[in-house]
Amino acid sequence: MTVTDGGLEARGLVREFTTKGGSVRRAVDDVTLVVRPGELVSVLGPNGAGKTTTVKMLTGLLLPTAGRVLIDGHDVVRARRRAAMACGFSLGGETGLYPRLTAYQNLEFFGLMYGMRGSRLARRARALLEEVDLSDRSGDLVGSFSRGMKQRLHLARALLHEPSVLILDEPSAGLDPQSAATMRALVARLTGEGRSILLTTHDMREAEELSSRVVLMKSGRIQVESTAGELRLNAANRLGHVVSAVFSAPQAPDAVRNCPGVLHAEHDGSAVTLRVSDGAAAVQWLLATFPGETTSVSVTPPTLEEVFLDMVAAS
């Protein structure tokens, strides 16, 4: 299936809750998100950032206090049925699946809810169980499944009615490395088919590998939105670059600590890692100061994880 138009659009989302004491707490504050066909946008943030509340509003599970959500052009509040048919979502965890039904029966039940019938539903359910590597457990009760197996079944359920928009809440949580890699490959393929995918994750590698754009949330608001590469390069002004060098001698010279702009230095035999304020200047200094002694030199901006932690630590 190739999707050519539509997408997810949320404008000015606000969600307020009234506490037991009668005060009003704003969990989500003026959030705007747009995911076009063929895009995958990752939402990152610490616990309590408002990610889950935002996702629940996007899927229609929670009404916004203010703002509007469109799924494939359909208003999630005013045209809920049409929006639901265009959107598949996986919120993971223990909810959303029936433990006393088998994996196949779960997909059969939800397929019926989406208006699917007969051989079409049977073919689709079997194909998805094969795709998420659960075909050999299709007749087993979901209550006997591990967390990772349930995560894979959640994704199969989200894809059952072939939606153009997918909202995935930490889809690789609880998966072993091999299964997580398979999940990432599947999500990448779904994006390539033209679907609009919103992904929440705590896996920085996953976000960097899959995302067209990355959104960082904190305290209910979007702090920054950009590509992973741009976020890393921009953060280098605050956090510095990482310069890695390997020397031909068994031990790297102690004098590398004299590199201009060095913020931190680590030695490991012939290898040295420097955190510096100016990566290009540091590389030039190393090559000029130790001519013919270095076998390799590289410079990289901060990791996405460092960018995330820096955002969380900022007041």
What structural class should be given to the helix and strand makeup? Answer: alpha/beta
Mean of all residue-level pLDDT scores: 93
Helicity, in percent?
A: 25-40%
Number of strands: 14
The amount of beta strand, in percent, is: 25-35%
Shape call: globular
Rg over CA atoms = 24 Å
Count of DSSP-assigned helices: 10
Ends apart, CA distance between termini: 45 Å
Please give the largest β-sheet. Answer: 6 strands, mixed
The strand line-up of the biggest sheet is: 6-7-8-3-9-10
Any low-confidence stretches, pLDDT <50, length ≥5? none
Helix and strand run: EEEHEEHEHHHEHEHEEHEEEHEH
Outline the structure in words.
The structure is a single chain. The chain is α/β, with parallel strands linked by helices. 35% of the residues lie in helices and 28% in strands. It has ten helices and 14 strands. The protein has helices at 51-58, 80-86, 103-113, 118-131, 147-159, 177-192, 204-210, 228-239, 279-289, 304-313; strands spanning 8-18, 24-35, 40-44, 66-71, 74-75, 87-90, 165-169, 196-200, 213-218, 221-226, 241-247, 262-268, 271-276, 294-300. The strands form three sheets. The chain has a six-stranded mixed beta sheet, sandwiched between helices. A four-stranded antiparallel beta sheet has the order 2-1-4-5. α4 (118-131) packs across α5 (147-159) and α8 packs across α10. The longest helix has 16 residues, at 177-192. It is globular, with a radius of gyration of 24 Å.
